[in-house]
Design a protein that fits this description.
This protein is mainly β. It folds into 2 domains: 70 residues, no CATH class; 67 residues, no CATH class. Strands 1-4-3-2 form a 4-stranded antiparallel beta sheet, with no helix packed on it. It has a 4-stranded antiparallel beta sheet with strand order 5-8-7-6. The chain is elongated. 21% of the residues are buried.
Amino acid sequence: MVLLTLIGENQAEAGTRFLYIGPLSECKDCRLRGVCFNLESGCTYEVTMVRPAKHDCAVYEGGVRVVEVEKRPTQAAVDRKAAIEGSTITFEVRKCDNMGCGNHFLCHPPALRSGTKVKIETIEGDIACPEGEKLAKASLV
């Protein structure tokens, strides 16, 4: 089944990935809100096809386009001991405040909260952690 949504005209390009954070309060009276709000909050999506339909929008200057999207895995750092493809884990955000670390967004992915049950789809290798943690980069669904 094809999953449709609306995104800003400037972002409407096949291959564009975005994080859906949920409905905006400015959209509560829009007649098209059902199409915009049909995604799962906190999940990453990729545009697979842009349809020709275009609509005016109070949020996006230039309007929005109808696009087909697919849900994509979220990249995150997991404890190396728990890094088993196909297993289900309870994700925990790393307790590290090293904002300058190149892995910061893997340890603090905006799409995941501590306590969320996720399945490890693939393990993409070890992460060099400056704090000495034994971590692996994983694709989570």
